[in-house]
Design a protein that fits this description.
Elements (H helix, E strand, L loop, with lengths): L1 H88 L2 H6 L25
């Protein structure tokens, strides 16, 4: 009976010791785990804010580019209109007035091929 009581005592002592170690381990892992989770959530929030800021800045830049594009397109259309009006007003008399003259002889330029089989046989 004495042996059984000593085994029971040792079992309870070991169980209490193990429970104390588990409680200490859980307490020692609980705080760092909690703080790690808080740090992870904080860093995820910061990364999210960077993504939102990037998206917002891209939208603002796109709007500015669209405004510049509309300005340039209106300038181009104005220049095209003035070009077309000047083309319509050109005639032979106005060309002679600015110094252009009819050519006396017309010369045409041609390029000879450097590859033998493409040249004409003589």
């Amino acid at each position: 009976m004495r042996v059984v009581q000593s085994f029971v005592f040792l079992y309870h002592m070991q169980t209490n010791t193990v429970q104390q170690h588990i409680g200490t381990a859980a307490h020692s892992f609980g705080k760092p785990l909690f703080y790690g989770a808080i740090a992870l959530a904080g860093s995820a929030a910061i990364v999210y804010m960077f993504f939102i800021a990037g998206i917002t800045s891209n939208i603002v830049a796109r709007k500015a580019y669209e405004k510049d594009q509309k300005t340039v397109q209106s300038e181009i259309s104005g220049l095209e209109l003035s070009y077309l009006s000047k083309i319509q007003s050109l005639d032979e008399a106005s060309a002679l007035a600015v110094g252009l003259a009819h050519p006396k002889e017309v010369y045409f330029a041609s390029r000879l091929s450097k590859v033998g089989f493409l040249t004409e046989a003589k």
